[in-house]
Amino acid sequence: MSDGAEVVDVAARRLDLAGTRAFEHPGSGQERRQRLADFNTQWLGGLWREATHGRPVDGVALAAVGSVGRGDAGPLSDYDLVLLHYGRTLSGDEVTRLADRIWYPIWDAGIRLDHSVRTVSQCRRVAAEDLTAAVGLLDISPVAGDAEVVTAARATVSHDWRANARKRLPQLAEAMAVRHRRHGDLAQSIEPDLKEARGGLRDMRVLSALAEAWLADRPRGEVDTAYGLLLDVRDAVHVVTGRGRDRLGREDHDAVAALLGYDDPDDLLADTSDAGRSIAYALDGTLRRAGQSQRARVLRVGPRRPQMAPLGHGLFESDGEVVLGSGRLLDSDPHLPLRAAVAAARANLPIAPTTLENLATRCPDLPTPWSPLARGLFGDLLASGPGLVTVWEGLDQQGIIERWLPQWASVRSRPQRNAVHRHTVDRHLIETVVHATGLVRGVGRADLLLLAALLHDIGKLPGSHDHSVTGAPIAQTVMRRLGHDEDDVAVVTSLVREHLTLIELATRRDHADPRTIEAALAAVDGDSDRFELLLALTEADAVAAGPTAWTDWRAALLGQLAAAVRARLRPPAPAEGEAAPAVVPDDVVRTLVSGEPHVRVVSHGGSYRVDIADRDRLGLFADTAGLLAAEGLVVRTAVLRTHDGMAVNEWHVESPSDAGPEQERIVRGLMRLATGDRGPLSLLDRRRQFATRPSGSSTIGTPGQPRALVVPGASTHATVLEVRADDRPGLLHELGMAFAKAGVSVRSAHIATYAGQTLDTFYVSDFSGRPLEPAKVAQVVAAIIDTCDGAI
Questions:
Q1: pLDDT category, 792, cuts 50, 70, 90?
Q2: Nearest one of 760, 762, 675, 686 to 730, comparing CA atoms
Q3: Cα 96 to chain center, whole Å?
Q4: How many angstroms separate the most distant Cα atoms in the chain?
Q5: Least confident of 377-386, 599-608, 783-792
Q6: Separation of alpha carbons 585 and 438, rounded Å
Q7: Residue 208 to residues 69, 80, 177, 217, 611, Cα–Cα distance (Å)
C-alpha cells in the first residue's frame, strides 16, 4: 500500500467523501461521517490484512481511539491507533515488525498518526497514570484483528475508571479548567477552537467520561444537536483549508459559511456560539450532578436526606444549587421564575436543571405589561452582581429570557467583529449590567441604569448601520412591555440612543471647545440626573467590552469631559417636598384615641399595601420598619407622614414566605413595642443571620460605599437627607434606630428600593420641630453611613 498512486488515491478519496456535494442536504453530516468511518475501517482493514498476510492472529488487534474510534472523524482528522496484544501470541520483535507494516503506509499517505503498541495490562497502567489517556481509552474500538483483546482492554479501563472516580473527578475538573483557560470560550470567540475551547468537541468526551463513571447521566437531545453542528463546522474547515485544523479562522468564515449553506458568516458564528453554549451548559450541570453523586457515595450511611436551606418563596439551596421545594406554585405563580432567578443570582448559585425545566414549561407567562412586582424582581435580578451571568445563561438555555424579552432572540450569540469586544452581543450586555452594579451609588435610579445597560446594544442587528439609532425604539418597546411609565421609558430610550456620545466626545473632540460641552448637554437634554446615568453607562459599557476599550487614558479623558459638563449643568431641582398631610378618616381617629394603632392590609396579587396609623412618638418609624422585617416582609416602597401628632404611613411589601401580613399581629406588635417590650423584634436577628448573601470574593459589580446626602433647599421646615445603600433585611429599622439615638424626629419619608438599592429620602427635625444645626447634620450623616456599612 506504499505505491505512490495508491497513496494519492487515499488522500483524494477522503476529501471526495466530504466534498461539496456531501454538505448539500439536512442530516448530511451524519451520513458523511459514516461514509468516512466506513472508508477508514475498510482502508485500515486492508492494511491489517496486508501486514498479517491474510492470516488470523489470535490475541492481537488493531484498535482506534479518538475520533476514528468513535466514528466521527473529519475528512483530514488524525489517526490515533493502538496495536493491542496479550503479550504471549507474538514475540516483541514480531509485534514491532507487524506495527511497522501498518504505520509506514499510513505515514506514506500523508496522514498524521498517533500510534502505540500496548498489552492490555499496559493500557490499564497508562490509564491509571495519565488522565488524558484514560479518557481516550474509554472510547477504544476494534478496527481489525482479535476484537476480544479490545473488549478486554476497554472493560478493564472502564472498571478502573469507575472504581477510582472519587480521585479522578477532581483531576478531570482541574484539567478541564486549565484547558479552558488556555483555549478560551468557544461561544465568545470570533476564531473559535472547535475542539479544545470551553464548549468544544473535547468537552463532549468529558460528558461521556462522567457517564462512564456512573456518576451522572449524559445529556441528550439539544447537546447532541450542538455536537453535530460543531462536527459539521470542523468538517467544512478541513475541506476549505485542505488541512486537518480545528480552529475556525477569520479568513475561512466566508468559505465555511458558504459550504454549510449560510448566506451570512455571522449567522454561522451565531449558530456555532449557540452550540458551544449548549455543550458548556450541559457540562457544567453534569459536573455538578457527578459531584453530588460522588458526595452521596462517600457520605451515605443509610438513606441520605438532602440538606435544604430556605431561600423564601418555596425555594431552597440544596447541594450547591437552587431548587423548588414543591411544585404547587408552578401552575399558578408567573413570578416564580423571577423569584428563583433573584434567589440564585444573589447566592451566586445555579438553578438546578430540573427546576429550570419546570419553571420554563409549567409557569404561566407574565401579563403584559408587567406588574410592579415583576418589575421590582427584574430589577433585583439585574442588580445581583456576578451571579447574574450563570443564572441568566440557564434561563436563556431554557427559553425563559426570550419569553420575558422577545427582542433578546435577535442578539443572542451574535458575534462582534470589532477588535475591542471580547464577547458576543448578548454576553456583552450582561457583562455591562454586572459592571454597572458597581456604579449605582453615583446615580439616582439604579434600575434605569441597569435596564439601559441591558439594552444599550439591542440594536446590533444584521444590516444595522447605527445600532444606537436602531436600538432606541427597540428599547422603548421593551420598557413599555415591562410596564414602566413614560418618563422612565424616555430616559432609557435616550440612554440607549446616546450611549456612545460621551466617549466619542471625550476621545475625539476638544474639551475646551464650548461646542463639545453643548453636544454633551444636548445628549442629556441638560438634565444632571440623566447625565450621571449616561456617564455610568459609558464606563460600564467600556469596561465590559475589554481592556482595550477602557484604558487609563480613556478614563482620564472621560473624567475631564464630565467635570466640564457638570460645571455647566443646571443645578438639580430640590427633592420632592413633604407629602401633603393626609385626611385622616374619623374611624381611624377614633381607633387611635382608644389607644390602638390602625392597620389595614390590601392584597395586590403577590404584593401587599399595609396602611398603618398610630400616635406619633420617637422611634415609631424604627419600630414599624423592624416589626415588618421581623414578620419576614420585604419593603419595596413607603410614604410616611405625620399630621397633628399622628403618623399615617403607607407601606408596600412582599412576602417571601407566601404568607400575607396579618393585621392583628401587626396591631399587637405595635402596641407591645409602644410599651418598651422588644419581644416582637426577636425574629429580626435570626432573619438577618439567614439572609441570602453572595458567595465568593469577586469585587466586580460591587456598588461601593453607601452615601448619605443633604439635599439643600428642599424644605424650609426640615433637613432633607437622601440615603443610597444596599438593601438588606432590617435596614430601615436600623436607620430608624440611628435617628432615634441621635434624638432626631422623622417628620416624613419616601422609601424606595430600585434594583436592590435603597433610595430613601428622610425629612428630619430636632425635638423642637426645626431643621438640624450643621453640627447635628454631620453627626446624623456619619451615623447613617455607619449603619448602612454594618454587616448583616
A1: very low
A2: 686
A3: 54
A4: 111
A5: 783-792
A6: 45
A7: 14, 19, 17, 9, 59
Which set of grid coordinates corresponds to residue 380?
433585583
User: What confidence tens digit (pLDDT) does each residue in 289-310 have?
Assistant: 888 877 766 555 445 556 788 8
Can you say whether residue 184 is alpha, beta or left, with left for phi > 0 and alpha for psi between -120 and 50 degrees? left
What is the C-alpha separation between 35 and 17, in angstroms, rounded?
7
> For the segment 511-529, what is each residue's pLDDT rounded down to a tens digit?
888 899 999 999 999 999 9
Q: What percent of the chain has pLDDT over 90?
A: 55
What is the C-alpha to C-alpha distance for residues 370 and 514, in angstroms, rounded to an integer?
Answer: 43
Q: E strand or H helix at 674, and its extent? A: helix 663-674
Query: What radius of gyration do the chain's Cα atoms show?
Result: 33
Could you give the CA distance from residue 11 to residue 29 in angstroms, rounded to a whole number? 19
In the chain, what are the domains?
A: 4-163 (3.30.460.10), 167-299 (1.20.120.330), 417-573 (1.10.3210), 590-789 (3.30.70.260)
Q: What is the pTM of this model?
A: 0.84
Picking from 374, 375, 372, the residue whose alpha carbon sits closest to that of residue 363 is: 374
- Cell numbers describing residue 325: 421545594
Question: CA-CA distance, 731 to 729, in Å (whole number)?
Answer: 6
Residue 12 vs residues 72, 81, 361: alpha-carbon distances, Å: 19, 21, 50
Q: What is the mean pLDDT of residues 568-579?
A: 61
Rounded to whole angstroms, how far apart are CA atoms 287 and 210?
Answer: 8
> Apex CA 285: angle with CA 284 and CA 290, to 5°?
100
Q: Which pLDDT belongs to residue 5?
A: 42
User: Got the DSSP string for 709-751?
Assistant: EE-TTS-SSSEEEEEEEE--TTHHHHHHHHHHHTT-EEEEEEE
Quick one: pLDDT at residue 791? Answer: 47
| Residue 81 near residue 143 (C-beta atoms within 8 A) | yes
How buried is residue 589: exposed, middle or buried, by Cβ count under 10 Å (0-12/13-18/19+)?
A: middle
Beta-bridge partners for 603: 608
Q: Is 696 left (phi over 0), alpha (psi -120 to 50) or beta?
A: left
Average pLDDT over residues 761-782: 90
Cell numbers for 424, please give them. 458576543
Distance of alpha carbon 615 from alpha carbon 598, whole angstroms: 10
3-state secondary structure of 1: coil
The DSSP secondary-structure symbol of 607 reads S
The helix/strand/coil state of 117 is strand
The three cell numbers locating residue 79: 489517526
CA gap 756, 752 in Å, rounded: 10
Amino acid of residue 470: T
Please state whether beta strands 79-85 and 113-119 pair in parallel, antiparallel, or not at all (unpaired).
parallel
Per-residue burial over 33-60, b if 16 or more Cβ lie within 10 Å, else e, is beebbebbbebbeebbeebbeeeebebb
Q: How many Cβ atoms sit within 10 Å of the Cβ of residue 557?
A: 19
- In terms of Cα–Cα distance, which of 786, 787, 740 is closest to 764? 740
